Amino acid sequence: MDNLLAVRIQNKVDSFSKGQKRIAAYIEEHYDKVAFMTASKLGATVGVSESTVVRFATQIGYAGYPQLQQAIQEMIRNKLTSFQRMEVTTERIGNSDVLDFVFNQDIDVIRRTMEETNHDSFYKAVDSIVASRKIYILAARSALALGTFLSYYLNLLFENVLLVQATSEGEIFEQMIRVDESDTVIGISFPRYSRKIAKAMNFAHDRGAKVIGITDSSLSPVAQASDCVLLARSEIASIVDSLCAPLSLINALIVATSLKKSEESKKIFQNLEDIWDAYGVYEKVDDSSN
């Protein structure tokens, strides 16, 4: 179990009631399950009331049970194996409809990300991107889809954008050999965090580049190396993490950047439309029957 949580419990253990001691013991032994239990379910599991669970959370220093649960979730997400993720998801879904469960989870994750996003950090990141000589994008594994999406649109807006191919640490550093204080590096990583991406972001930071981290926690290795951190929640969904909130955040980043370069963006996209039309890039849909 996380040392900070263990210390919080240990510091208060002498003041616990019998019921609270049962809660503490269960958390210490089964924190991977508690991370996704409601307060009422945890109470029923250990034989105490929901209000006892809530009092336990506040007694060890959290604002309430949701904050305790969030702390445990952040603690375990980078440690769970794919098999454990499937077990957690199966238990959480239970008899619910899978489609409805996933949709509702994604809606909740986007809502919480919107409520918690630091607007100053967001617009600081936009200004950094617009002012850059060159933009490097770092992403690996499942986050590579996010990096590719961001790279595609920034390449339409800027001349010098590089999606770094993260096949090996050596190749990453070779592609970033010229990075300096006039550049911006955007690193995207979610549990389980990529060691290669974290190392590359530290390299960029040491070279004086402006480093933007898109991740899920201020404790993530990506955040530690960043000048500007954009946090987006993700949730466990079987063997994968739901990345709808990070994608929504990246959408907002692209929109804000294009608006910052409004006149130039209009010219670029008008030129693109003319080229696409002249060379038949897209299939035209005949809607005359409607």
In short:
With 290 residues, the protein is of the alpha/beta class. The chain is built from 14 helices and 7 strands.
What does this structure look like?
The protein is of the alpha/beta class and 290 residues long. It folds into two domains: 110 residues, Arc Repressor Mutant, subunit A, CATH 1.10.10.10; 155 residues, Rossmann fold. The protein is built from 14 helices and seven strands. The strands form two sheets. The protein has a five-stranded parallel beta sheet with strand order 2-1-3-4-5, sandwiched between helices. The chain has a two-stranded antiparallel sheet with strand order 6-7. Helix 11 links the parallel strand 3 and strand 4. Helix 7 crosses helix 13. The longest helix has 19 residues. The model has no long low-confidence stretch (mean pLDDT 87).
